[in-house]
Amino acid sequence: MTNLEKKRVVVTGLGAITPIGNNLAEYWQGLIGGRNGIGPITLFDAARHDCRIAGEVKGFDPHDYLDRKDAKRMDRFAQFAIAASKQALADAEFAINDLNAEQVGIIIGTGIGGLKVLEDQQEVYLTRGPDRCSPFMIPMMIANMAAGLTAIHTGAKGPNSCTVTACAAGSNAVGDAFRLVQNGYAQAMICGGTEAAVTPLSVAGFAAARALSTRNESPESACRPFDRDRDGFVMGEGAGILLIEELEHALSRNARIYAEIVGYGMTCDAYHMTAPVPGGAGAARAMQLALKDAGIAPDRIDYINAHGTSTPANDKTETAAIKSVLGESAQRVAVSSTKSMTGHLLGGSGGIEAVATAMAIANDQIPPTINLTNPDPECDLDYVANQSRSATLNVALSNSFGFGGHNVTLVFKKYA
Predict the structure, then answer these.
(1) In which band, very low, low, confident or very high, does the pLDDT at 1 lie, cut at 50, 70 and 90?
(2) In the chain, which residues fall in CATH 3.40.47.10?
(3) By the 8 A CB rule, do 315 and 347 touch?
(4) CA 351 → CA 172, 239, 326, 345, 409, distances in Å?
(5) Mean pLDDT, residues 286-291
(6) Reduced to 3 states, what is the DSSP secondary structure of residue 390?
(7) What positions does the domain Ketosynthase family 3 (KS3) occupy (predicted)?
(8) Distance CA 239, CA 267 (A)
(9) Angle at 364 between CA 87 and CA 180, to 5 degrees
């Protein structure tokens, strides 16, 4: 298929379950207002843990979206995905029916899947025996079930898949869905990421890897991307979902368009299990490939929603990668990390950050990087510190990088 035959792809619906709001309006107002979503862990007793803070989703009731029997047979990560997907469909005023169901697909990424169910069932196995394990353990635990269950609960019968590329999973899901619509394999796709990994074993494991902040006495300032005093990321949970459509299909039903997706790049560092390659060559290539795919020159970028994890290695590496791709124009481009407010949703992060990027373009408003009070000399770009900013945004990137060396960049553009 030649470039001339490729279809244009637009974002028409958004849904969000996050530590700073359980719908799109709350999430966006939280971002623009610099709301902190991080606090002491309440989902389990974390007294014995080195890290006792997280960005938890608050006040979420799965029964707003699911009946009690169905909700009980799902892990929290799948509940989040279904809720955010239903929000996105409602936001787009998009109805899935017998006429279009086979042309609507789903790709929802996750880094870990149903870890809470696995932990709970391991306890049942050890204390009560193997015959007392739940028959729903496996379908509740496996990572693809967010996409599968979302299809069951929305009726979407088109392409259905799950990306599991660690912290790049949500962005890979959006990018892969973009390709399917662009190349004519679906008219619309529900896509994004979900995660619910604030569990005893997950927090213990990330802490043992020295990846998490231990700023337990001041959780509101623990996640501080690009700040010299950053000491690790803060776990978050939730889901971010986009409904994307082929442009002509969206126009035919007079859909509201938030932004257009125009580029997707992915690479691998092939370097280390958890650490980015020094200098950020892999991340830089992902950005370059995405821009090449979009046919957009680096000097046209107005905003970058950074991966920005608040870890010592990531933030300086991503800064170096941005500078290598943008050259002299890097100093004028606004960059921000919304993880400073939500924490790091692992496989869900690319989903909520794609939502944030589309909203930034639609509203010409840049979310801030909060807690940036003592800039790292090695992180010397414009990170929109502490307060949101109004600016005309025509082109924006969303970066996601994951353990295993996965690098993903999405390019969004103002629809015209």
Answers:
(1) very low
(2) 9-252, 263-413
(3) no
(4) 9, 7, 24, 9, 12
(5) 98
(6) strand
(7) 6-414
(8) 24
(9) 50
**In percent, how much of the chain has pLDDT > 70?**
99
* Residues whose CB falls within 8 Å of the CB of residue 11, separated by 6 or more in sequence, listed in order: 242, 243, 244, 257, 258, 259, 260, 261, 358, 412
Place of tokens 């501080």: 224
Please give the angle made by the CA atoms of 108, 367 and 410, to the nearest 5 degrees: 40
Burial of 128 (0-12, 13-18, 19+ CB in 10 A): exposed
Q: Which CATH superfamily is domain 9-252 in?
A: Thiolase/Chalcone synthase (3.40.47.10)
313-335 burial string, b = 16+ CB within 10 Å, else e? ebbbbbbbbbbbbbeeebeebbb
Query: Shortest CA distance to 17 belongs to which of 200, 235, 196?
Result: 196
Known catalytic residue at 191: no
Catalytic residue among 167, 191, 223, 379: 167
Q: For residue 154, report the phi and psi dihedrals to the nearest 5 degrees.
A: -120, -20
Contact 340, 30 (CB under 8 A): no
pLDDT at position 364, please? 98
Architecture of domain 263-413: 3-Layer(aba) Sandwich (3.40)
Residues 367 and 370: their CA atoms lie apart, in Å, by 9
Nearest to 74 by CA among 86, 62, 85: 62
Does the predicted TM-score (pTM) go above 0.85? yes
- Residue 79 pLDDT: 98
Query: Which residue in the block uniquely carries the two structure tokens 């809470």?
Result: 116
Please count the residues of the chain.
Answer: 416
